[in-house]
């Protein structure tokens, strides 16, 4: 069908043998008739749906000999019979495509294969400059595509290396079927621009550019005097959907300037529509809460699992509270130690002040005694000199003469 398999070109995607072998594998590996499980994954399928799939005649008639024609106006093209691929837009087509790509999974624990429709991404961890695991995974993916009559588009395949180490090392080129894979600094992954240093300025600028282009249509509709509810609906469908695309993955690490750029678009739309609109931060918070609720709901499908989940949450909460109490206790001990040390320092300071005071008092006392003695001796010497008394003692006379001379 036209428009199918834009990246994976195939000549015999879903043949009779592949479908029957895949369905047989799901059935033979199931532990009981009520649960069907694949050998390479623990995901299960609905038993009633599997019973429908095991109608070989219906499946074979659905996949083979399908007539197709194209109508343009009143003109109808000739009919062409197709025996490959699955009808586009059919409810069963995603299930059949998932069944075909079910075995495409990572073999190494350091790698991860992300599959979304016809896009495949290999994420590998390079530890100690050892790229063997990642390269082997790419080669295995290439071999799997070749074995299933699929071809990788090397021209659209890009390689991005995220390295936060100080010592940067050069990585050799990756080859797929003899063609080198281009190493880029940024790439677009499911509508989001990824940069090698994990900054989101490029993604923010791309989003703001698209939103600015769509603001033109909001202005035109506002000039046409459309009511605010219709303008709000148009804004949410054309602008807010772009601003909130994968917002839970990138908005948390955006810079303040990037957030202001996005918020400026919301404020411009508010002035045009004249209605209060949720800010970009509120949208991010709402989406995060919704995502967390969906994860918790998927993680607890049964009542027993719900109780276990609540028990884990309770234990984790108690553990977090005990860690908080222990941290507070440690902080109080640290404060008490600092207080004790300061008291000790203050006591030492007080003692030194007391010693200094005693020393000063002793100095003043000695000076007072010395001055008093000198004054007494001077008075005595003056009395002796005035009355012409001479002391013949050789030990006292020089001292008295010295004191008299100093005075």
UniProtKB/TrEMBL annotation:
Gene Ontology molecular-function annotations: 2-oxoglutarate-dependent dioxygenase activity; methyltransferase activity
Domain Reverse transcriptase: 1-194
This protein's record includes keyword Transmembrane: yes
Record key words, sorted: Membrane, Transmembrane, Transmembrane helix
Keyword Transmembrane helix: yes
Domain of life: Eukaryota
Protein name per its UniProtKB record: Reverse transcriptase domain-containing protein
Lineage of the species this protein comes from: Eukaryota, Metazoa, Chordata, Craniata, Vertebrata
């Amino acid at each position: 069908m036209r428009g199918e398999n834009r990246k994976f070109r195939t000549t015999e995607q879903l043949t009779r043998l592949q479908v029957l072998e895949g369905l047989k594998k799901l059935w033979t590996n199931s532990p009981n008739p009520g649960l069907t499980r694949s050998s390479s994954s623990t995901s299960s399928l609905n038993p009633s749906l599997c019973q429908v799939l095991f109608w070989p005649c219906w499946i074979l008639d659905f996949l083979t000999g399908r007539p197709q024609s194209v109508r343009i106006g009143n003109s109808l093209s000739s009919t062409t019979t197709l025996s490959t691929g699955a009808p586009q837009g059919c409810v069963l087509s995603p299930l059949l495509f998932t069944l075909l790509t079910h075995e495409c999974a990572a073999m190494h624990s350091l790698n991860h294969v992300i599959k979304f429709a016809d896009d495949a991404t290999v994420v590998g961890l390079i530890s100690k400059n050892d790229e063997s695991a990642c390269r082997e995974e790419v080669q295995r993916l290439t071999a799997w595509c070749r074995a299933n009559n699929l071809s990788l588009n090397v021209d659209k395949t890009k390689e991005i290396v995220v390295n936060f180490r100080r010592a940067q090392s050069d990585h050799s080129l990756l080859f797929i079927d003899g063609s080198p894979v281009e190493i880029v600094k940024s790439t677009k992954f499911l509508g989001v621009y990824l940069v090698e240093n994990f900054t989101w300025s490029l993604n923010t600028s791309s989003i703001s550019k698209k939103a600015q282009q769509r603001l033109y249509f909001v202005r035109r509709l506002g000039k046409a005097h459309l009511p605010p509810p219709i303008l709000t609906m148009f804004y949410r469908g054309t602008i807010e959907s772009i601003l909130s695309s994968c917002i839970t993955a990138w908005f948390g690490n955006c810079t303040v300037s990037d957030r202001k750029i996005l918020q400026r678009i919301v404020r411009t739309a508010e002035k045009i529509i004249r209605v209060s609109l949720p800010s970009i931060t509120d949208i991010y918070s709402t989406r995060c809460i919704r995502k967390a609720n969906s994860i918790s709901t998927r993680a607890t499908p049964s009542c027993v699992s719900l109780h276990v989940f609540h028990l884990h949450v309770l234990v984790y909460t108690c553990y977090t509270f005990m860690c908080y109490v222990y941290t507070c206790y440690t902080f109080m001990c640290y404060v008490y130690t600092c207080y004790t040390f300061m008291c000790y320092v203050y006591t030492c300071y007080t003692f030194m002040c007391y010693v200094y005071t005693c020393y000063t008092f002793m100095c003043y006392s000695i000076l007072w005694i010395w001055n008093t003695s000198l004054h007494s001796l001077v008075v005595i010497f003056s009395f002796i000199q005035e009355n012409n008394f001479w002391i013949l003692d050789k030990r006292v006379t020089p001292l008295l003469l010295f004191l008299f001379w100093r005075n």
